[in-house]
Amino acid sequence: MVERIQRRKPTDDGRRTKAGDAFAVVGRPSSVVAQVAGYTAMAIVIILIGIPVFWLVMGALKTNREIFSANPQWLPLQPTFDNFVAAWNRAPFGRYYTNSLITTVLGASAEVVMAVTTAYALVFVRFPKRDWVFALLLIALMVPEEVVIVPNYLTVARWGLVNTYAGIVLPGASIAFGTFLLRQYFRTLPFELLDAAKVDGAGHIRTMISIVVPTALPAIATTALLSIVAKWNEYLWPLIVTSTQQMRTLPIGIAWLLDQEGNTEWGVVMAATLFVVVPVVLVFLYAQRFVVDGIAAGAVKG
Description:
The protein is mainly alpha-helical. 76% of the residues lie in helices and 0% in strands.
């Protein structure tokens, strides 16, 4: 009897193995299709994003005659760097760089600090009507920027901050999106860490600086990256609140090169656009490692 049972076991295992192989064979096509679809989608995204960027770089190396040619070429026939020199000399881009750098650093730093402190209060500090405050933040996300331009300008003008760095930075020092993003991330942090900090006698400020901020560094880096890109590319508000060339920023400098009569030298404009794009790309390449490390840490933790 025992021998019969032992003989049957290999047969059962064999059936299970065959069934597993059949399942694997059936499952493989679907996984292959998913991979092909994923790579196809990535290729489409790369093409849609890469072609304009490639044309921008190549256009900056072309003469105006090549750009307006009836048979345009992807690669410049006679590459030239004169467009970069012309763009730099036609507008005070050195001053524009300084203004953009100052307003971006100050504005992004203020926004991140406000987002971290506000999100910490909404998650870890108990106070009356806390959910109502968060609801107001959600409502603020739905308000277009153009709606608050007039009130912001009147306030800045009343304080005498028109055509100053403070006038450019202050209206955007607190953005509801950063607070919303960090609040959602802070809610996923283990409360045991905060309980341990309370046992050790740490207050809210010490807990936030020593525990919450290092733990939430990927989310904070993402918020800072989004803020830096937004401040660096901001055009409308700096254009309204400044009145002299000495206080203009880089996006306004690009608009300065456009000819209202239609005789724009697009090679010069594309070269000036690269002045704006390259620093943001470098910042992103540096900051993306924090985001990637945070995603990897979250995946391992899960």
